[in-house]
Amino acid sequence: METLIRQLRQRVRVPLIDVDSWFDSQFPSLESQQKVLDQICLVSESNPYYAQRVVKTIIEKLERHMDADSVILDGYYEKLFEVMRASPSVPTDTDVLGYTLQADSEDPDKDKVVLIKESPDLISGMGTTGLRTWEASLFLSQWLLRDFRSSGSLTRKSFEGKTILELGCGTGFVGICLYKYFRDQMKGLIFTDGDTQLIDRISANLLLNDISIDSGDLKVCKLWWGEDDLPPIKIDTIVAADVTYDASVIPDLAGILAEAMSQDNGEYGRVDTAYIAATVRNPSTIEAWEEYLDNGQHDRIWDWQIIDSTENGKYLERNRWDCIWYPVGVAQIKIYEIRRVIDNLD
């Protein structure tokens, strides 16, 4: 039941939801049925067509497994009647997805969940990068949060007492994860994106997660690489995900990183570390990105390394890591650590 509820939150595609595990040992109890139905009711508020398909699937399974003593809640049939005429969504339609970053071992209602309003059916392409949460954001967020919790953390020093800036934040997923669960350990967080319309969407996603846009340690601002200056504030660490989606943006991305790490902005100093997750959709784009990284290393601006990737066996079975589900066949994702070279002037 717990797995099913978490999959419904994230809108895992109906053919892939794990209804069968709900019937492992016995017919689902009325209490268990009610908990799943409650989640379906929440889903139907923003995506009635998805709810319709889920209810049909569950009713079919319940009826197939029932015996003379089994009881199916009437609420399933009532919900099916309610959403029967729902139409399929179009790619630009929005929904509110819940990503389970840390599962409670007993009660999914106590899970640590990040809520994001997005357009989950969009495919990757220019102009759509900030309209849905891409897999690189999920992978980077899970990796950072898991590393923070480990005794031998590789990254904690880059975040404790530091001001973090997210480049190309899109839906804001990475920054929201950090702020929601590690706010007390960080000094501040800055969300940036080049699209002013996405800035408005980030504000809505902050509110969904009970984060006030007026918090003193939080800023949201426009940053168009190659045109806008970095915010006039001391920035220690940069995070970014899926910002290498096209070769045309690589020069400006490398430029903003070089500016952040090589130019001493007076009282604001320089950025020390960046963590960037990149999806390998086009090998030539990643080659261009790594060539710019090599150039920066040659110029003694930074050192860089790949600290993890999805090829390292970190996924659990069925492309699941912890309680977040990834599409079958998702392209490889790499996490890059870029550290400023410390010279005698620092």
From TrEMBL:
One GO location term (cellular component): cytoplasm
Molecular-function annotations in GO: S-adenosylmethionine-dependent methyltransferase activity
Gene3D superfamilies attached to this UniProt entry: Vaccinia Virus protein VP39
Protein name: DEKNAAC100240
Annotated source species: Brettanomyces naardenensis
Highest taxon in the source lineage: Eukaryota
Entries under PANTHER family matching the protein: HEPATOCELLULAR CARCINOMA-ASSOCIATED ANTIGEN, PROTEIN-LYSINE N-METHYLTRANSFERASE EEF2KMT
Pfam families xref list: Methyltransf_16 (PF10294)
